[in-house]
């Protein structure tokens, strides 16, 4: 399965990268109902930092945005039927619950997708830090250049003043001695 397909099913909720139960069920090629039953049979393996149910507001934000593909979105997910969200750790824990060969392969692909997103985020952070460092250097150089320009202007002003005084001295009206 292409990593891009999995990447498109990873959302951000509560400052966590998550995958929704129906997307995972589709990837594992099982019905969402059956997928959730397997989770409920092993609920002690999924603490709140591994899996949580979306609030109505969170679900509305995700489902109303263009993030969730319309053909994948289940209908009438309200109240007690709001989707479960699985964090990266929750997706990893699925390997202990879903034991078919297909599930193992899919789990590996999903974990790799999360890892690649982390690497991308780290690269972005590194790039951002480099840009910040360059900006600080440029600001420092601007300050130094400004001082140099001021010194040059002062020297030019002094030279101009001296030339003006010299010219005035040479063009002065002579007394006749």
Q: Topology as H/E string? A: HEEHHEHEHH
Spatial shape:
rod-shaped
Helix content: 55-70%
Query: Kindly state the mean pLDDT as a whole number?
Result: 83
Q: Unreliable segments (pLDDT under 50, ≥5 consecutive)?
A: none
**Largest beta sheet: strand ordering:** 1-2-4-3
Rg, Å, rounded: 33 Å
Structural class, judged by helices and strands? alpha+beta
Straight-line distance between termini: 105 Å
Question: Helical element count?
Answer: 6
The total beta strand count reads 4
Which band does the percent of strand residues land in?
5-15%
Could you describe the largest sheet, including whether it forms a barrel? 4 strands, antiparallel
Structural features:
177 residues; alpha+beta; 6 helices
Description:
It is a single chain. The chain has helices at 3-7, 21-27, 32-41, 56-64, 88-97, 101-170; strands at 10-13, 16-20, 51-53, 84-87. The model has no long low-confidence stretch (mean pLDDT 83). Helix 2 (21-27) packs across helix 3 (32-41). The protein has a domain at 3-122. 63% of the residues lie in helices and 9% in strands. The protein is built from six helices and four strands, in the order H-E-E-H-H-E-H-E-H-H. The protein has 177 residues and is of the alpha+beta class.
